[in-house]
Amino acid sequence: MTHYFSEDNNTLKSNPQVIAFSINNTPLKFKTDNGVFSKSSLDRGTEVLLRYLEIEDSVKTCLDLGCGYGTIGVYINKTYNISVDMVDINQRAIDLSVHNVELNNTEANVFKSDGFSNIKNKYDLIVTNPPIRTGKELIYKFFEEAVSHLNKNGSLILVINKKHGAESAIKFLKTIYSSVEILGRKKGVYVIRCKINWLFDWYMILY
């Protein structure tokens, strides 16, 4: 399963399919393939995230970190008409996301990045269903690095299952962000919003 979250999927035979579902009365369809996460259906983590997602009126820019075949970024652009960047390390996922942006009549800038390695911009919002199976060390690194890619008063919204360490992740996030709140939870899946304010932002820069 680690090939979902790496560049090592070029040898997997392609077997594309199209899946369709509706989130919050928004109909969506996606081309998927072997070598990408949850190719046959919308995964439960992303479904819960989108059900409880709250986007403030001040948000104009968003990063979908680890976009897979594009569910989160496509939904956000279609629903909120926000400028969206979508990144993933998996080239097949990137190719699918480019296709799915067009398939759903949406707009997004899709490009390859290993975490934040190719990301130069700052955003009002970063949203992620993090690749838990890559390990806590990498995921926590994403949480830390997100701070420097958020605009003043920006937010990181993520989803994580209790059995995958949601409670310990919340404790860690509270050491980084000035506000950590649970937007919702369903059957052990937590949707968490982390915010920075300008005082905290300056503290991070200085120290």
Question: Can you characterise this structure?
Answer:
- This protein has six helices and nine strands; from the N terminus they run E-E-H-E-H-E-H-E-E-H-E-H-E-E-H.
- With about 210 residues, it is α/β, with parallel strands linked by helices.
- It has helices at about 45-50, 70-80, 90-105, 135-145, 165-175, 200-205, and strands at about 15-25, 25-30, 60-65, 85-90, 110, 125-130, 150-160, 180-185, 190-195.
Please outline what is shown here:
With 207 residues, this protein is α/β, with parallel strands linked by helices. The chain is built from 6 helices and 9 strands; from the N terminus they run E-E-H-E-H-E-H-E-E-H-E-H-E-E-H. Helix content is 29%, strand content 30%.
Characteristic key phrases:
207 residues, alpha/beta, seven-stranded mixed beta sheet, two-stranded antiparallel sheet, 6 helices, 29% helix, 30% strand, globular, disordered N terminus
